[in-house]
Specification:
CATH topology of the largest domain in chain B: Rossmann fold
Strand order of the largest sheet of chain B: 6-7-8-3-9-10
Structural class of chain A: mainly alpha
Largest sheet of chain A: 4 strands, mixed
Number of strands of chain A: 4
Helix content of chain B: 25-40%
Number of domains of chain B: 2
Distance between the termini of chain A: 23 Å
Oligomer: heterodimer
CATH superfamily of the largest domain in chain B: P-loop containing nucleotide triphosphate hydrolases
Order of helices and strands of chain A: HHHHEHEHEEHHHHHHHHHHHH
Radius of gyration of chain B: 23 Å
Order of helices and strands of chain B: EEEHEEEHHHEHEHEEHEEEHEH
CATH architecture of the largest domain in chain B: 3-Layer(aba) Sandwich
Amino acid sequence: MNNTIKVFLFEFKNKFKEKTIMISSIIILLLIFIATFIPSIINNNKKTEEEIIKEQIEEMENVGYIINDKDIESFLINDKSELKLAKKYSNESVLINDIESKDIKIGFVIINETNYKIIRFGSEFAFSEVYDYGIKDNLTIYAKNKFYKEHNIDPMLVSNAEKIEISSTIQDIGKSAENNFFIAYIGTFIIYFIIILFGVSVSTTIAREKNDRTMELLITNTSSTSLIVGKVLASLIFSIGQIIAMLLIGYIGILLNKASYPPNFLNILVQNISPSLIIIFLLFSFFGCLMYFFVYASLGSLVSKVEDVNNAIGPIQLIFITSFMISMISMNTPNSSLLTISSFIPFTSPMAMFVRYSMTLVPLIDVIISLILLIITSVLLAYLSIKIYRQATLNYGNKLSLIKVLKNIK
Amino acid sequence: MKLELININKSFSNKKILKDISFTINSGKAMGFLGRNGAGKTTTIRIIMDVFKADSGSITINDKPFLKKDYKIGYLPEEKGMYQKIPLLKQLVYFGELKGLSKKEAIEKGTEIINKMGLSEYLNKPLSMLSKGNQQKFFIAQSIINDPDILILDEPFGGLDPVNAQSLKDIIRDYIKKDKIVIFSSHQMSHVEEFCDDVTFIKDGKIVLSDNLNKLKKEMGKNKIKIKLIEDNEVEKLNIIKDILIKKENDYIIIECLNNKKTNDLLLEILNLKLNIEEFSNYVPNLETIFIKIEGDKNE
């Protein structure tokens, strides 16, 4: 036990000197911090009225139109319409010529009140919609008014009838999956990032110790149990610290930019991030990391060269990424059987249970069963990993077969 | 102290690696543990170090079961390495702590050994900055940081220049003087011969010989004399002497008396031949010759 603590402290301190870990951690913390400033950045970029008018004038210099009907023209071109700033043409071929010579970018030919043509030089984007400066809406009003007049219908009456609105409110009994989507998304991403980053780091550290033969000295100075447990715990505590840092930096960022956030967004956060949700998140992250790190550590011990680590950890990476995909996909249907089943399977439950718990009402017994299953699996895998590690650490040469090592375990 | 291995057996994947290994090592003497690559030396050492459990057999110290945790052990493996990017003192302190020293003791002892090894300028520099020879010195420092009761050195002279080799020899002699158990394994027989009072030969997982080196030399040199002739072609004249076996070893001629022939009689006969003899002595084989002979005998 004493040596486990020594290994833990040594490995933990070294984590701060691992460039990959530190750079990735700093980048992700910075990204989170910057992301919290987005609403403030957007607000600061709001344009003044003068700037808007200036931009509008510049834009309309690139627009031309032809309206032969005087009534339609007086309806469409007025002080309030943007088109008043556009170039007026009387001849379509001149308009086309100007577009071709790129004097203007787009032209509108109003044929009658129900039909108009847009002329442009190719399309910049596939499936792009053309902004028509309100021509379609205004022509619709014009055509409707004409119709009412012809049929002696009071336009005000129709307008009032169209204003009738049916109102409805949603009262959520339990949790709102929609409101908690953001929380589930962020939480899942954090668990994914932490396990991938630190899992690979655990494997690489062990493979490197075999690669440079440090293992030979370590294993003769302390037990393999102390070594693997110390290393895994160091990564675990560092990663939990990293999770807390991510949450804190996010919280500080939101606090600093509080005024720029829509009040509704902050309300959702305050109302839905309950202490129980945080406890569930931390518990499942903790045991999820513990279980995966032991697996990563044992797989890292199977190889003797650092460059072989990726091959060795391939199977567990596949399982973990599948688990991540299941959780992400299931966020659209949080009550699905897939997510429910996944929330009980230890390899998927760290993320799936968090998604389920944050988006739906989960019976406490489900959480307890899932957690117990995760803890039991973590302990069993830890035991198996120690055995694999002990078997594998002193075997150098080609990559060991996991099946062969498992067969040799007594 | 007397460390004794008794009938140690070990198999891996149904392949028997060690077969009834038994030998004794006494403190105050160094024991040369010799054998070719793959003979079973490292597995035996790993069993002493408690890295592997023996399938059967026992290890005792002063006739009581040997428990690794009760003794301080220093080990320098043949295939070794340490953290390349971590400063020397820091990792020496780590290994010292793993060996049971307190942090304070480890820092003090680590600094002292690094200075003694002439590596003080690298105290806080990473291992990767050291030359191969200096790295070897650092590995040796790691093995003695806890002032071990049992010191196991596997190829300790690899990469050391003559000056550094001499420093290491002084350290080993110091340990022998302190009445510690020293197990020494090397393919450089001259080094083994220099330190070791006893030698144990292992071959294909079996102990083929374990004895006092001087006694062994005497036995193997019994009834043999060594001469050096001024003129090489005179060796033909020796063929007329009966009941002898002539072998050439470098510039010397080794003559073995057969069929109870006495060396005194042989000497008289050689003198009668009136050869031009440059050197003449009893034959004492060196360790290399003994090693080759043992390996050869067992191959036959």
